[in-house]
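Run folding on both entries below.
>entry_1
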Amino acid sequence: MKRIDDFVASLGFKPLGKMWKEISTREAVLVATLILHRDTAYSAKIMEFDRAYALATSFTNLFTLDPHFYTNGLYSSLSLKALRNGLSPLPWSGNSISESTMDHGIVCKDANVMGILWVEDED
């Protein structure tokens, strides 16, 4: 996790060490779709689901050589079908990497590159 922590720290975020949760590509697409589709504070729609899903998929597809995805928290229930049908995920729990009231996203790495898709929100 040191590489992930060093990367986020270089962007001004707080490292999480062992609190990072490694997730599958499918889960990374779900998290990315959610944070692009709905805001984290009130679950208000930011963009259409199909656009959010396309952007999330495009982003995760950038990582091709042994990709790994990490997030700072998980939802107790999250599915593309629920998001597409306008349902909000069940409660999220996790660890913040920013000074904002809420933040969530994915950090991605493969053999050659690292990237981050992150949102911060206030209530």
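>entry_2
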Amino acid sequence: MGKFNLRLQHVLLTYFCSKKWEAGICACRSCRLSFSQSIVAWALNVPHDRVVWSNGSVFDGTPRQSLKVFKSSGDVQRHFCSKCGASVFYDIAKEPETVDVAFGVLRAKDGSLARSFFEWDTEKVHHLEDAVDKDLLTLVKDNLAALKEV
């Protein structure tokens, strides 16, 4: 595998391992409200030590630079850019070593699905029970397998 970088002004996400990270789609109420859309794509369980600030320090959940945090539920913090409003991280207290990265802020040479770095969960939409637009989510769920063929 190669090196994967995510630059968010002062944040760098590095990828140096041979195992791909999981990517998936979520339809939970919290994501829907945070993004103002029915489904959200996430890079899931990215190790904190792969999220590095421009000064070389490792992500520890503390907001830096333009990133701000709000608590979206009991043990969940969401990080967003205070300058442009982009959602960036989903940080859950019971998983202190990993963070989820909003897929919309990622860029990869191999395209928007970044398949060389991520294995997409094509079996389910996470939190489908929370979905408001059931017809849309049924279409998405029924067509996730097509991601393997694209």
